[in-house]
Amino acid sequence: MWSSSSVRQRSFAPSTRRRVATGGDAVRLLLLAHHYRLPWEFTPDQMHAAQISADRLAAAAALAEHGQPDGEDAAIRQARLEFVAALENDMRTPQALRVLEGLAERALTTGRAAYAAELRELGSVLGLSLPAASSQVTQPSAAHGHEH
Prior knowledge:
Helix content is 56%, strand content 0%. The protein is mainly α. α3 (44-61) crosses α5 (93-110), α4 runs antiparallel to α5 and α5 runs antiparallel to α6. It is globular and about 40 Å long.
């Protein structure tokens, strides 16, 4: 586990390490991907994966801007129930993130604004801003050569 003393002992110099350009949502996703009671170690690869996930969620949430939510269905209601249950059960944020990823997948595969709107609403509970994805990034996982 990283601590301030372990960072000093390792002579960590950020300028000599691989830099990863990240946004606020990526940092939040990195932290939320780990349950607060469990120890974990940071790696640049985890940060890179979190950025890919943030890009994918943003691309899916952007679909809410391109159409009117077309009504709630059973999948949206189920996602909301699972999301709330995860947070009420000892703040299981990794489980809540899986719900968001499921909504993103549905939004991207169906193009339905309702899934995107729910993704944006539930993501905001976790502090995610989910800005509109740039026009260059439509499928972040494919653009980076990773399956997520």
